Amino acid sequence: MTTVPAATPSWTDLRLLEWSAFGIEVRIGLLWLALFVALGIFLRFGWPMVRRRLWKGFRTKSVKMSFKGPEVEICADHETRRVAYQAWVEIQTRKVGLPFEEEHDVIVEVYSSWYQLFGVLRELCKTIPAECYRDDDDARKLVEVLLDSLNKRLRPHLTRWQAKFRRWYGAAVDAPGNKDRAPQEIQRGFPQYKELVEDLRAVNREFVAFAQSLLKLAEGGR
User: pTM of the prediction?
Assistant: First the structure.
């Protein structure tokens, strides 16, 4: 009688888990474990890079925009279009997106609107998921441009003028000779009124142009 030596199991035959119940058998070996691990590593680290490269091949339209910084090209993908549209709506419905009219606008109301916009755009930037900000160059560029609009234009003007003007205006409104005067007339008495309005209008012009770039991006770069 000849004895046949038992075959040495290969590493693919080694089983880490066996389960059988109700006529169902489950066996997981090292080969499957290795495949699962490799797939997990790819999905975690490799897929974002592949996705960006593939997606960029389909995105042919981009919009050039900047705000007190280098001009950047931002492709009109789903996330950037969403954020651009919401930012455009916020700017268009507030004083910062409309030319300043001396006969009708009250500066303290303009500043209140600007301050509210500051908070809204900041919160809008937070709606972009962290992984999207990390993996999507265009989403990151849009966030940076939006923050530049706040930090490099709204903030400097408000820092220079708002507190000074509000303090003066509060006292001027309560002055006996101004009881029956319109706010628009009172504010013209501010000692640096002309300089303030020139800077305020410059901010308006920049945001009007910026809003048009946001709208173009929201429309897909058309």
Answer: 0.68
